[in-house]
Amino acid sequence: MAKKAAMDKASTFRPRLWPLCSKRSAAKTAYYTRTTVEGAKSRIRRSATLTIALVYFNRSDLPKATEEYQTVLKSNPKDGPAHFYMGMIYRAQSAAASKEYQSNP
Predict the structure, then answer these.
(1) Which domains does the chain have, with CATH numbers?
(2) CA pseudo-torsion sign 29, 35, 41, 44
(3) How many helices (H) and strands (E) does the chain have?
(4) 53, 72 contact by CB (below 8 A)
(5) Any idea what DSSP says for residue 77?
(6) CB under 8 Å to 88, separation ≥6 — which residues?
């Protein structure tokens, strides 16, 4: 039953995909495929870098976390999570510097 439902659903995609497979639109298909793949790679790379940076942040390895977040910000300067965690890193570094300054008269 599930196999039949899956096949029925797949058959509804064929009419929508068929124009992309025709010979006259082969160049368009290659272009869209290439840009789609590059976009997917970029999103995966960003997600992996953000995850690694968050691991460093949670381990309090702030220099490595800063490096990873700056890598993300080079590719996308408007990345919200990267800016948020950079702010958290700067806040933690400021608190540590303030504590060190107060402890050394």
Answers:
(1) 28-103 (1.25.40)
(2) negative
(3) 4, 0
(4) yes
(5) T
(6) 57
Torsion of the alpha carbons at 49, 63, 67 and 45, rounded to the nearest 10: -10
Q: What's the rounded Cα separation, in Å, for the pair 17 and 15? A: 6
CA atoms within 13 A on the CB side of 101: 6
* Pick from 72, 83, 73: nearest CA to 50: 72
- CB-count burial class (<10 Å; 0-12, 13-18, 19+) for 73: middle
pLDDT of residue 21: 47
**pLDDT tens digits for 47-94?**
888 999 999 999 989 999 999 999 999 988 999 999 999 999 999 999
Between 31 and 69, name the one with better pLDDT: 69
52 near 37, Cβ under 8 Å? no
Report the alpha-carbon distance of residue 45 to residue 70 in Å, rounded.
14
Report yes or no: 81 and 50 within 8 Å, Cβ to Cβ: yes
